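Students often ask what a holo structure prediction actually looks like on paper. The answer is less mysterious than it sounds. You provide the chain, you provide the ligand, and the output is a string of discrete structure tokens encoding the 3D arrangement of the protein together with xanthosine-5'-monophosphate.
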Amino acid sequence: MPETTSLVAPSLPAKPQREELILVLDFGGQTAQLIARRVRDQNVFCQLVRHDLSLDRIRELNPKGLILSGGPASVYDAKAPKVDPGLFELGLPILGICYGMQLTCQTLGGSVQPGTKREFGRTICQVTGTDPLVAGLPPSMTVWMSHGDQVHDATGQFVQLMGTSTCPFAAVKHRTKPIYGLQFHPEVTHTEHGGALLANFVKQVCGCQGTWRISSLIEREVAAIRERVGNKRVICGLSGGVDSSVVAAILYKAIGSQLSCIFVDNGLLRKGESDKVRDRFQNHFKTDLHVIDAKDRFLNELAGVTDPQAKRKIIGRVFIEVFRKEAESIPDAHFLAQGTLYPDVIESGANVDGPAATIKAHHNVGGLPKELGFELIEPLRELFKDEVRRMGLELGLTEELVWRHPFPGPGLGVRCLGDLSAERLEKLREADAIVLEELRSAGLYRTIQQAFAVLLPVQSVGVMGDGRTYEEVIAVRAVQTDDFMTADWFPMPYEVLQAISTRIINEVRGVNRVVYDISSKPPSTIEWE
Ligand code: XMP
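The corresponding structure tokens follow.
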């Protein structure tokens, strides 16, 4: 069984760790990886591992401290995950969060009981003790709780550091050991100063200097890729988006000419996409780039299809067929690289508890199936999007690429409502480019998380010059969102709307009306199809 809790091959180093390391023991909490991410924000490498990693292995990895994550169980459940009590004798600083705290206190003799009421959500917490862990915090702050059980009687072994009216032991410290517990979740943004608390643990309590940089991660991945790939060939599918570009860039750094990139032009791409990919991966990074012009094939298969899910299925199937054919024609291809991110591997469980729901990945239809027969390489599998962006910049990708809005796999196929003809797609492509250009020139592109044009399947009457027109309608969509699971429509300044509308109507032939979408998600979705 892998020791890291990612769904893929473990990447913990076999040799003792030279850089500062914090391990998060994963008890199944939906925010466990967020803890790791917050620690990495302190420039300290941090990784999620199985909660039952052996003490020998922990000693070998030589971490500066351990964090025990939250989890869905109650310490009294028969099957509740436990730890080796020897963990608390290693002499390492330990921070237990929620379930991790309850387990810590219970193992060390404290009692855990169901709280008088389940606490779920924001609550005000007072700082009641003095300790490096709570140094610099205000006397009172909002924290995010999500628990049924709580530490009830710390039996004199623990000192209270923070408390709420219903949860006196919201933060505790062991009297003699560097062992701490937090009943609330410092890793979620709803907890004020949660980052500062974790920073205190990592820097003050564990004594980390914070010397880790994203470049260290690149070096580690590059070395791991080289070792795994040997002299074999790796195929990487490029989509034009951030993730696949970063994957290709890191592979190029690792194995150079042993990398072959495949870019399928399905005719549903944004304006200039194909040229940009060529420029980047043929001219800048000199990869063996295969651009497959499959526009006609896609459009033929999609002719007359208007149902959104049917379109998605066709686009997904044809993509796999085209990709597979090209991949099979590349001699010695052994590995397939994919831009899977950590949120993609977090399951969207039915009992999603509180803030965890916000870190789920949006659906990613149109990927490649496992049975393509290649061994998978997923260099980004432990990273969140912002870390991928930092990595991209470090690898020499441009700001423009690294901050691109997400673009769905089925592309303009699900933004061109109704019939997918080459002519209608061209109209949409032009209108979409105008929307994005105007947002960039108004300095709004980064304020908005996703914006695009949609071509509607209706015609409306207009006048142009002396003549009556009967032409198509473009809807403009722009949303602000943290996680793409919910989204607000963006209150676009009138002058920007005006510039977009005027340009589209003047420059895109066959469009005589522009509307702005003022619906939020839910109940609307971000895409129209
Ligand atoms: P919705 O429309 O469901 O979109 O609010 C949420 C996010 O998912 C993207 N999206 C897709 N991405 N294949 C993808 O790769 C798809 O079929 C697909 N549908 C929606 C959408 O662009 C937004 O970022």
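The domain at 21-205 is CATH 3.40.50.880 (Rossmann fold).
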